[in-house]
Amino acid sequence: MPSREITAAAVLHALGDPTRRTIVERLSERPHSVSALAGPLGITLTAVAQHLAVLEACGLARTEKAGRVRTCMIDTEGLAVVQRWIADRRSPWETKLDRLGELLDEEDG
Prior knowledge:
Layout (H helix, E strand, L loop, with lengths): L7 H8 L2 H12 L2 E2 H8 L3 H13 L3 E6 L2 E6 L2 H32 L1
Antiparallel strand pairs: 1-3, 2-3
Helix pairs in contact: 1-5, 3-4
């Protein structure tokens, strides 16, 4: 399988769609077939396949075909990318807020 570059922007864009969020939530419980995903969503198999293509491209889902059944499962690679993106932005702000707290403590003491 060729290496893919997953970006936080692609993952966040994919999760911006409520149907894709529902698919990710269901896949986080257990693997499902495409038809099992489509039923409760009230959408066609083609629509589910299109949503899955977006989720696969950004590392949130993966599928395997065995005979005539395509099974979908969660892929955490995309979630890890977003987690790193958040951590990279949180760290500088936490450092600044810690320093501010130290300065305020010095003024009180």
